[in-house]
Specification:
By secondary structure, the chain is mainly β. Helices cover 7% and strands 26% of the residues. The strands form three sheets. A five-stranded mixed beta sheet has the order 8-7-2-1-11, with no helix packed on it. The chain has a four-stranded antiparallel beta sheet with strand order 5-4-9-10, with no helix packed on it. Strand 4 (60-62) and strand 5 form a beta hairpin. The termini are far apart.
């Protein structure tokens, strides 16, 4: 049996690590989850599928392909398998509950999460489809997750 050089094993290990992703979002929240102000805002869920903790500092969310750095995450630790809700409320807050400086369009629009390097981790392009009120949209995953107020 041949052994692989250390640098090749390292490269293989690094390529198996996943980046955080947009796992789900809700573009027409009417009476569902409420933010800390009691408002039922649009929201975006970020999921860390990796086995390592990720600090989202410098990661970006946008609803405009021409403005990839529209909203930038502050230092936010996301554990392995962890999820965080970011409110797409146009309130632009980066302490406590996180709020973007844009909202989501029920009729569909571009939505992306990118790394500090600019590499796109998740995008709905050219636009996600029309969204039904109080119905979230996202990628498939195995298991069940319950999102409740205060999450």
């Amino acid at each position: 049996m041949k052994t692989l050089p250390f640098f090749l094993l390292t490269a293989l290990t690094l390529s198996l690590q996943a980046a955080p992703v947009i796992s789900e979002f809700l573009a027409d929240n009417d009476g569902g989850l409420k933010d800390e102000d009691g408002d039922d805002q649009d929201w975006i869920e970020i999921y860390n599928p990796d086995t390592n903790t990720v600090n989202l500092a410098g990661w970006r969310l946008t609803d405009d392909v021409l403005a990839p750095s529209k909203w930038v995450f502050p230092s936010t630790v996301l554990p392995p398998g962890g999820r965080i809700i970011v409110w797409a409320s146009n309130k632009n807050r980066n302490a406590g509950q996180l709020h973007t400086n844009f909202t989501l369009d029920q009729d569909g629009e571009y939505l992306a999460l990118s790394a500090p390097s600019g590499t796109v981790a998740t995008e709905f392009a050219p636009a996600y489809p029309f969204q039904t009120k109080n119905t979230s949209f996202g990628s498939g995953f195995a298991g069940t997750v319950t999102v409740t107020d205060g999450t």
